[in-house]
Amino acid sequence: MMNTTSVFRLLLLVLMLAGIVFGDAGLLEAQQQVTPAGAPVFANSMGSSVPYPPAPDGFYRGSLPAGRPSGRDMVGFYFHNLLLIYLLGLFVLWVWTASWIDTDANQLKVYPELWNSIVLLAAVLGFVGALCAPNGFVSFLSMTAGYAIPMGFYVLERNKRVPDSGKVLTPRHLKSVALRLLSRMGVNIGSTKETRSHSGGPPIRLIGKSGTGAGEIDRSRQVESSSGYISARELIYDAILRRTTDIHLEPKEGEMSVRLRVDGVMYPAEAFDRSTGDALVNIFKVLSAMDITERRKAQDGSFRAEMENRTIDFRVATQGLQGGEKMVIRILDKGATAKTMVDLGMRKQLVEQMQTIVSQPHGMFLTCGPTGAGKSTTLYAALQEINAYENNIITVEDPVEYKMANVTQIEINSKAGQTFATALRSILRQDPDVVMIGEIRDSETAKISCQAANTGHMVFSTIHANDTIAALFRLIDLEVEPFLLASSISAILGQRLVRKLCVDCKVAYKPTADLLQKIGLPADKVDKFYRPPAKTEAMCPTCNGLGYLGRVGVFELLVINDRLRDLIRETPNMSAIKAEARKNGMLYMKEEGLRLVVKGTTSIDELLRVVK
Predict the structure, then answer these.
(1) Which of 493, 492, 489, 494 is nearest to 362 (CA)?
(2) CB atoms within 10 A of CB 325
(3) Using the 8-state DSSP alphabet, how is residue 243 labeled?
(4) What angle do helix axes 4-21 and 81-108 make, rounded to 10 degrees?
């Protein structure tokens, strides 16, 4: 069945054809009556009929015939051939554009019904204006405005919601269209790399893991010539546009399911049939320099992609299952900009405390939390507070997530024997002022880090622990002597990431007294909480109906003072250390998170999901 848009388009086509066939001349003929003898007559205002003088040159429809005096005003000759051809071409272009707007608006959730109505109404007004115009120039302007004005406004609206690579009618987009058209005509302009990037599919180029010699070229050609290469590019490109951090390809019976982790939560995506899914897994394994014949043992690798003039890294891990091979692809955007502490969502007092800590000449600052809690992002924000021109800053990371100017960044290579411990030994001989270690994983790295903090270096690092107090005892478990830990540690920051409510669709509600009592808030000081909209409510185009957009940090800062150093050095006791930290004003993560709930930044359900 035809939808409303198709019916309106058909009616508009009928109206346009009727106007072309009949025109003003048809209206003139309707007022003329022809006698049986063939002599035209004219009905006057009194009702009587009088002979109507015949036209001296005969009656013609359409453009000016040969031999007709050009200076004579003639009704019925307002449609010039060129104007008629332009009108028909504009109509075909309008049908294609209206179809594209309908599809694009539905995909981007940009009020498709509204834009379909605007495009149709503008086209009808433009066509009617063209028929009523006194001359061809005004008719040309009316038809063009009926097409171009709604098209221009829609492009402005949709370009605000997509990244630079997805914008249309920009110099970049027009250049890519021109390159594709010329390529189809056999004219290749630009480098081979540029031509391949515009040969079809999304504007992203997958690059295999760096190899030796011609092996890299052979792998790239092997992948690019495969049938599923465009599907692989589309999957990666779509995941990046959705702000995905991990792509999960999971084999099921008859299909390869796809799940994307967005803002820390898994969402299902469109699945592939099993043959296409297995081909995608092989493509990514070839790009990552893995063995495609091995499907039972776990493997890992990496590849890169170029998009929007920046490089994006991908870490790939596979695991053999009973029904096939599962693959997880982690997206690491090297082109992203490191955030500041204010961007992390810290309150003003916490930012001031952090600035004091990271500006110390020596000591050790740790961040703790589970995988994906934003620990590395916080360390980068701390490095932003340090003058990289006056200090020698060296980082050891696995992998390098953000590129920073005037900072020496070293990437771990376990296969080549370069670990955190071995790299840390070498960089301490390079006169560093600040050292950032991606993660303390073993006893050797933990001991060297504490020794570096005691010898005049400021050390930043991360450690896996549930909270700040547990992080202290995790270091003791890694065989760091309490006296060494007490003299080196400056502060520990525990953190989690909670999703932020979409500002365009969040809904206010009055919390119950039982809920406020459970979370420890006074009922007389809380007016309302916020939550995401219900599934039955209209879908928000800003967040695509998720109710959340982006994430913000929830923190717990433990600052080590002299009393805490004595407790750590003498009798490390978790309860005593926690009681002393509370006396110094330390707030738990849950208490910091409730501040975000009251402000309407996140919901109470999201906070309780992340912070226990």
Answers:
(1) 489
(2) 23
(3) T
(4) 170
Given CA atoms 212, 217, 219, 220 in this order, what sign does their dihedral have? Answer: positive
Residue 55 has what DSSP assignment?
Answer: P
Distance (Å) of CA 230 to CA 165, 206, 284, 478:
17, 10, 12, 48
Question: Using CA of residue 178, residue 184, residue 186, residue 188, what is the dihedral sign?
Answer: positive
- Predicted TM-score (pTM) of the model is 0.65
Measured in degrees and rounded to the nearest 5, phi and psi for residue 366 equal -115, 145
Enumerate residues 6+ apart whose C-beta is below 8 A from 549: 263, 499, 500, 501, 502, 503, 542, 543
Residue 399, preceding bond cis, omega within 30 degrees? yes
CA–CA gap between residue 244 and residue 248 (Å, rounded): 11
Nearest partner of 529 among 600, 610, 593, judged by Cα = 600
| pLDDT tens column, 371-397 | 888 898 899 889 988 988 899 999 998
Higher pLDDT pick, 41 / 54: 54
Residue 532 is inside which H or E element, if any? none
Place of tokens 């004003």: 585
For residue 520, give the DSSP letter: T
Q: Let me know if 423 is exposed, middle or buried by CB neighbors in 10 A (0-12, 13-18, 19+).
A: buried
Poorest-confidence range of 67-76, 279-288, 347-356? Answer: 67-76
With beta carbons less than 8 A apart as the criterion, state whether 345 and 553 touch. yes
In angstroms, the Cα distances linking 310 to 181, 330, 381 are: 25, 17, 21
Percent helix / strand / coil, the chain, rounded to 5:
45, 20, 35
- For helices 348-358 and 375-384, give the axis angle rounded to 10 degrees: 70
Radius of gyration of the chain measured on its C-alpha atoms? 35
Taking the C-alpha atoms of residue 443 and residue 447, their distance in angstroms, rounded to an integer, is: 6
Q: Quote the CA–CA distance of 530 and 606 in Å, as a whole number.
A: 11
- CA angle (458, 460, 465) in 5-degree steps: 140
Measure the CA–CA gap between 145 and 127, rounded to whole angstroms.
10
Alpha-carbon distance 265 to 240, whole Å? 15
Using CA atoms, how far apart are residues 90 and 404, in angstroms rounded to an integer?
51
CB 410 within 8 A of CB 423: yes
Q: Tokens 């110099």 label which residue?
A: 171
Quick one: which of 430, 449, 431 has its CA closest to 439?
449
Residue 373 in tokens: 């809690």
Contacts of 528 (CB under 8 A, 6+ apart): 508, 509, 510, 511
Tens of pLDDT, residue by residue over 364-373, are 999 999 888 8
From 336, 264, 339, select the one nearest 497 (Cα to Cα): 264
Which of 308, 237, 249 has its CA nearest to residue 281? 249
